[in-house]
Amino acid sequence: LKTPLKQAPTSQLVLTERQPDCQPLTTPPKPKETPPADPWTPTSNLKMLISAASPEIRSREQRRQLSDSSSEVLQTKHCLQEHLLGDEYEKSQPSRKEKSLGLLCHKFLARYPDYPSPSLKSYICLDEVTEELHVERRRIYDIVNVLESLHMVSRLARNRYVWHGRHNLPQTLQALKRVGEENKYIQQIQMIKRREYEHEFDPDGERNEEMASSFGSSEQSEMSFVELPGVEFRAASVNGRKYKSLRVMSQKFVMLFLVSTPQIVSLEVAAKILIGEDQLEDLDKSKFKTKIRRLYDIANVLSSLKLIKKVHVTEERGRKPAFKWTGPEVLPNTQDIKLEATSTTCSPPISESITSKEQCSKALFPSKGKQNFTRHSSLIKLVKSIENDRRKIQSAPTSPVKISASTYLFIIFLLETSFSLFLSQMTAEEMQMKCALSSPEAVPKPETSQQPALSQPLGVCPASHSSMSPVILPHPQSGVSYAIYLHPSQAHTVTTYSPGFMLQPLPCANVTGIKSSNSKILNKITTEEGDTQRGLDEPTKSLAAEERPETKSETSSQRCLKRSQALPESNLIKRRKSDEESLDTSLTFFPSGYLIPLTHCTHGNKAECSTKEKAGVCSLQHTAYSSPITGVIPMPASELKTVNIPAFHITPLNIMLSPNSIAAAPVLSNSCLNSSSTSSAPNPSSSALNFMLQHIGLIPAGVQVPANPVLQHVPVSSQSENISHSSGSTNVQEGKDLLFYSPINENNFLFSLQFLQPKEPQETQAVTENFFRTPGGPNTEPALSASSDGTQRTSQGTLYIPQRKLEVSED
DNA sequence: TCCTCCCGCCAAGCA
DNA sequence: TGCTTGGCGGGAGGA
């Protein structure tokens, strides 16, 4: 017996079939007709049986519509099963993976162009498709339904659909996003997450009832299919099944991504929301399972469309399947789309700005993804460094101090974000140039108008930058100072300091957080927003901070502030404990910032350190891993475990400044300089510093700013006085250790100086939080506001890293 | 063991 | 009445 040759795995074929340029692929050539069957001998019979078992043969038979022969095939199949051993027969069948809906969808999509010519309508005949793809009709419906939900196809008549491709996608996504917002999906997600969390502690609680009531109380009404003007919806069974249709489910699923930040949706949450809407009373397991099944179906199709990508969200309760939005970013208003839609210069016609960017980007950078980093050698080093550090973290034993690993991830995130921003700037520049060269009208105007601060070519430092004034933040006790490079034109803006802002304990970490307004940035972080507010009663309170000028956390922090102001220093321990309690009951967030350099003067005051080492304080500086290239200090869980510094011990001094006006670097003071200058160890932060300064255009590309005490004797300007005042009332200058820097959005970066302020053994007192901000551009709004008692809050938003550790891993 | 999702039954609805 | 469409859940492959 000859085992039939197994079909080559179709997955690879299909994947290669689907070219990146998304050109329409021709229908695969019809397989050659087989020669007439051999005489009916036992051997030939067997051969025929084997070949008949292959789907290709079967489908061919179907195409020939020989009912008699197909019955023969069935018969022969049956005979085959008898003749062949069970295993061999199974092997002759395509594997489960080869029959997956995702693969089928790939095949399906490969038949049609992404952007079909409007003049040439492509029609889809289901019979043909089922025939050519050798699948059951049922499966095609699954695909078509999802495509219909995105208005990529529309039903024309029985058995007949029209292929629209991606022309309608931007409008559809926009509409879906709007509807999703209207339906308050964010709140629902938050609510579900909160209930999940509560359920952990109250497993016997009447979750379903609560859930049902909460959904019932929301103004959510049963939602129908979101249609687009001009795209007619002609579902076969319109009324009865419409609301359960895969189409509607698919749209809702997409909405969840579009309204979420980050755009990661777990299947569980999606299923609950979808169930919650239509079948409140039947929130049982089987319904849930069914929804999950359908979501997998939808997700497979959306994945084939490259709109989502499967990830895994790891949190305390385990690993959950989730999906991440990888489709085009949906702009908040339709204006941009209309603008883009009028552009006729790109081919295929671009009706979405993101697509136009992608197109131009593709043309500019044929390589994909991170390979773009090859454009900048320092990026390679940095990425390698990140990888190394990441490996260290991953190989470190799991520590109960979860925060440290998460903090590390956060740092890595910020680092990557920073470079993404850098790349995006470069890309924007080059894209414009390239587009201008190829098609002058295609220059994305909105980009330039939106990002004036970034319009300067990177690496080319305007002459005025040479006159930037470093401002020193002295730090006598630790022997560390920080230099802040201020652009003279904007230095005056750093005058908003008020000593009253100074004393700022950290009772609630969202006080110190920053939320990036850039959802793309947030995509990179592995958090689940929403379930972060353990201490808050209402899920809406976990929304962006700007929406709630007065929150519980704020009042609590204000109370703490007053309390701390009233307390003498000897009571700091007490206060810290209360802060700790406050954190325990609410959340532990991490200081946000881009950790550039540690000050390298830990050996500058050995006596102090030896005392502190007993308390496990100083060891952070000694043992923190430092990437030789970047100066990034990852903080592995194991390390922080020994250090034993809870996150709330780190209080940042946050200074929000425009990227074109400020940079920061550590400067060693005399005492520190002496020791550090004798040290042969290279300063790991210098490359990062220079990179950053070049990055934000403060220094020309070739110029290197030494991260050494050259700047330390620069007289403190009036602005810096204000800044150094920030330590006047209390203990800013006693702190040291960390300088954080993070891009907030295109126009703002955040610098935060973090001080670990040892007051007593085992004490790391963090007391200071201060913000300064310069106008970052036309779109920036006041990011900070001072309340009457001197506390400050980020009004722009808060990026909070929840204590609950969440990781997203891609398959 | 659990995740993933194929498979096909069968009912609703249409021509 | 036959066909199309699609909701649904069992159960098996795969990790």
TrEMBL record:
Could you give one GO CC term from the UniProt record? Answer: RNA polymerase II transcription regulator complex
Location comes to: Nucleus
Q: What is this protein called?
A: Transcription factor E2F8
Q: Which InterPro entries match?
A: E2F, E2F_WHTH_DNA-bd_dom, WH-like_DNA-bd_sf, WH_DNA-bd_sf
- Source species, please? Loxia curvirostra (Red crossbill)
Q: Where is the composition biased (Polar residues)?
A: 785-798
> One of this protein's GO BP terms?
negative regulation of DNA-templated transcription
Stretches with biased composition (Basic and acidic residues): 531-553
Describe the location of the E2F/DP family winged-helix DNA-binding domain by residue ranges: 96-165, 241-327
Q: Which family does it belong to?
A: Belongs to the E2F/DP family.
